[in-house]
Design brief:
Layout (H helix, E strand, L loop, with lengths): L1 E3 L3 H11 L5 H19 L5 E8 L2 E8 L4 E7 L3 H10 L4 E9 L6 E7 L7 E5 L2 E2 L3 H11 L5 E10 H10 L4 E8 L1 E2 L5 E2 L5 H6 L4
Parallel strand pairs: 1-10, 4-5, 4-7, 7-9, 8-9, 9-10
Antiparallel strand pairs: 2-3, 5-6, 11-12
Helix pairs in contact: 1-2, 2-3
The structure holds 1-O-pyrophosphono-5-O-phosphono-alpha-D-ribofuranose (PRP) and uracil.
Length: 207
Amino acid sequence: MIYESTSPLVKHLVNRLRDAHTDAFLFRHLLREIARQLLGEAAEALPTVEKKVPTWQGNFVGPFVDESRVVCVSILRAALPMQEGVMEVLGECEGGFLAMKRDEETHESRLYYDRVPDLKGKTVLVVDPMVATGGSLHDALELLQERGPERLITLNAIGAREGVEKTAVAFPDVDIHIAQIDPVLNKDAYIVPGLGDAGDRAYNTPE
Ligand code: PRP
Ligand code: URA
């Protein structure tokens, strides 16, 4: 299921990302904030637990997110600031890393690092700012789904319509929370209008 944000604040943050004058420092800051906002939009699906905490008025029992059942997985490298944003809110959840690089000729992603904790029974938040062809997200979801999570949720900043829809068809049980969907891909499989190469913009490595 695709959930495209309708929040004016999220649109504002994404459009600041698009601005070619936005430098790497601000770019990473905006990605962290977008991830926090999208986490809020996806929060209904997070596992909760009743907990008792001591307060100045004695004990209080109330609902908390069950962070012990949440894992946030980033698809390196452009997703790193998003993972930071999520884990600043859910400080006790576990973090996992998949490193993928898209081949610039074939546009297929190649996995070169996989460090993901046990996912059995967990709610997994998969973060990646860009969904272009959808190939990287598809490969990541396929790999993660095989490891028995209870639920998979993605948080993404910008997607091309065709890549996002292809992902939703291939993974009907996955909640795709995306800030904005753009209309097309260009001949090099870059999102248009998009923002260019997210990894390069976040880490000062222009092609
Ligand atoms: C970018 C982006 C996604 C992928 C999207 O990563 O962060 O992972 O491209 O493209 P797709 O939907 O066509 O697969 P990239 O491979 O450029 O690596 P980087 O983050 O290290 O720059
Ligand atoms: N990866 C990016 O960072 N941007 C795109 O537009 C496509 C893939």
